[in-house]
Amino acid sequence: KTIERISLSCLDEKWPDFMKFKPSAILTLMKLNPLKYMNFLAKWLNENKTKFWVSRYSALIALESNINNVSRLDLDLLLKTSEKDSHRFVRLKAKDIRTNFY
Predict the structure, then answer these.
(1) SS3 category, 60
(2) pTM
(3) Cα Rg for the chain, rounded, in angstroms?
(4) How many CA atoms lie within 13 A of 67 on its CB side?
(5) Cα 69 from chain centre
(6) Backbone CA torsion sign across 87, 32, 66, 12
Protein backbone atom coordinates (compact mmCIF):
# COMPACT_ATOMS: atom_id res chain seq x y z
CA LYS A 1 0.00 0.00 0.00
CA THR A 2 2.80 2.44 0.84
CA ILE A 3 4.60 1.86 -2.46
CA GLU A 4 1.34 2.27 -4.34
CA ARG A 5 0.56 5.51 -2.50
CA ILE A 6 4.05 6.91 -3.17
CA SER A 7 3.88 5.92 -6.84
CA LEU A 8 0.52 7.63 -7.25
CA SER A 9 1.86 10.77 -5.58
CA CYS A 10 4.77 10.74 -8.06
CA LEU A 11 2.27 10.94 -10.90
CA ASP A 12 0.37 13.82 -9.33
CA GLU A 13 -0.04 16.86 -11.56
CA LYS A 14 1.66 19.05 -8.94
CA TRP A 15 4.97 17.69 -10.24
CA PRO A 16 6.41 19.02 -13.50
CA ASP A 17 5.82 16.76 -16.51
CA PHE A 18 9.49 15.92 -17.01
CA MET A 19 10.29 14.48 -13.57
CA LYS A 20 12.44 11.41 -14.02
CA PHE A 21 10.57 9.37 -11.39
CA LYS A 22 7.29 9.40 -13.32
CA PRO A 23 8.21 6.55 -15.73
CA SER A 24 9.26 4.39 -12.77
CA ALA A 25 6.00 5.15 -11.00
CA ILE A 26 4.02 3.99 -14.05
CA LEU A 27 5.96 0.73 -14.23
CA THR A 28 5.64 0.19 -10.48
CA LEU A 29 1.86 0.66 -10.45
CA MET A 30 1.39 -1.65 -13.41
CA LYS A 31 3.57 -4.27 -11.76
CA LEU A 32 1.76 -4.02 -8.40
CA ASN A 33 -1.79 -4.09 -9.69
CA PRO A 34 -2.13 -4.17 -13.48
CA LEU A 35 -5.89 -4.68 -13.54
CA LYS A 36 -6.47 -1.67 -11.30
CA TYR A 37 -4.27 0.66 -13.36
CA MET A 38 -5.02 -0.64 -16.86
CA ASN A 39 -7.56 2.18 -17.29
CA PHE A 40 -4.77 4.73 -16.84
CA LEU A 41 -2.86 3.52 -19.90
CA ALA A 42 -4.89 5.65 -22.30
CA LYS A 43 -3.96 8.77 -20.32
CA TRP A 44 -0.33 7.75 -19.93
CA LEU A 45 -0.02 7.07 -23.67
CA ASN A 46 -1.72 10.32 -24.65
CA GLU A 47 0.91 12.84 -25.68
CA ASN A 48 -1.28 15.80 -24.67
CA LYS A 49 -1.72 14.47 -21.13
CA THR A 50 1.70 12.86 -20.63
CA LYS A 51 4.31 15.22 -22.04
CA PHE A 52 7.50 13.31 -21.13
CA TRP A 53 8.15 10.77 -23.87
CA VAL A 54 9.92 8.42 -21.44
CA SER A 55 6.69 8.14 -19.45
CA ARG A 56 4.77 7.21 -22.60
CA TYR A 57 7.47 4.69 -23.49
CA SER A 58 7.22 3.22 -19.98
CA ALA A 59 3.47 2.92 -20.39
CA LEU A 60 4.07 0.91 -23.56
CA ILE A 61 6.47 -1.38 -21.70
CA ALA A 62 3.79 -1.84 -19.03
CA LEU A 63 1.20 -2.53 -21.73
CA GLU A 64 3.46 -5.10 -23.35
CA SER A 65 4.03 -6.82 -19.99
CA ASN A 66 0.28 -7.04 -19.43
CA ILE A 67 -0.84 -7.67 -22.98
CA ASN A 68 -2.96 -10.65 -21.92
CA ASN A 69 -5.06 -8.37 -19.70
CA VAL A 70 -6.06 -6.08 -22.57
CA SER A 71 -8.82 -6.74 -25.07
CA ARG A 72 -7.75 -6.80 -28.71
CA LEU A 73 -9.87 -3.71 -29.43
CA ASP A 74 -8.36 -1.73 -26.55
CA LEU A 75 -4.87 -2.83 -27.54
CA ASP A 76 -5.47 -1.70 -31.10
CA LEU A 77 -6.71 1.73 -29.95
CA LEU A 78 -3.78 2.22 -27.57
CA LEU A 79 -1.24 1.23 -30.19
CA LYS A 80 -2.81 3.47 -32.85
CA THR A 81 -2.40 6.44 -30.53
CA SER A 82 1.24 5.61 -29.86
CA GLU A 83 2.05 4.91 -33.50
CA LYS A 84 1.25 8.59 -34.20
CA ASP A 85 3.36 9.90 -31.30
CA SER A 86 5.79 12.73 -32.05
CA HIS A 87 8.70 10.85 -30.49
CA ARG A 88 10.23 8.17 -32.68
CA PHE A 89 11.09 5.79 -29.81
CA VAL A 90 7.46 5.72 -28.72
CA ARG A 91 6.32 5.10 -32.30
CA LEU A 92 8.87 2.34 -32.79
CA LYS A 93 7.95 0.61 -29.51
CA ALA A 94 4.26 0.68 -30.46
CA LYS A 95 5.05 -0.81 -33.87
CA ASP A 96 7.24 -3.43 -32.21
CA ILE A 97 4.41 -4.47 -29.88
CA ARG A 98 1.98 -4.66 -32.80
CA THR A 99 4.41 -6.78 -34.83
CA ASN A 100 5.10 -9.17 -31.97
CA PHE A 101 1.47 -9.48 -30.90
CA TYR A 102 -0.31 -9.82 -34.23
Answers:
(1) helix
(2) 0.92
(3) 13
(4) 14
(5) 14
(6) negative
Count of CA atoms in the C-beta half-sphere (13 A) of 2: 0
What is the pLDDT, as a whole number, of residue 36?
93
Query: What are the CA-CA distances from residue 59 to residues 47, 80 (Å)?
Result: 12, 14
d(CA 81, CA 78): 5
Give residue-wise pLDDT tens across range 56-80. 999 999 999 999 988 899 999 999 9
Q: Identify residue 88 by its one-letter amino acid code.
A: R
As a whole number of angstroms, the distance between CA 4 and CA 19 comes to: 18
In whole angstroms, what is the distance from residue 89 CA to residue 16 CA?
Answer: 22
CB-facing half-sphere around the CA of 95: CA atoms within 13 A: 9
Separation between Cα atoms, residue 25 and residue 6, nearest integer Å: 8
What DSSP character marks residue 39? Answer: G
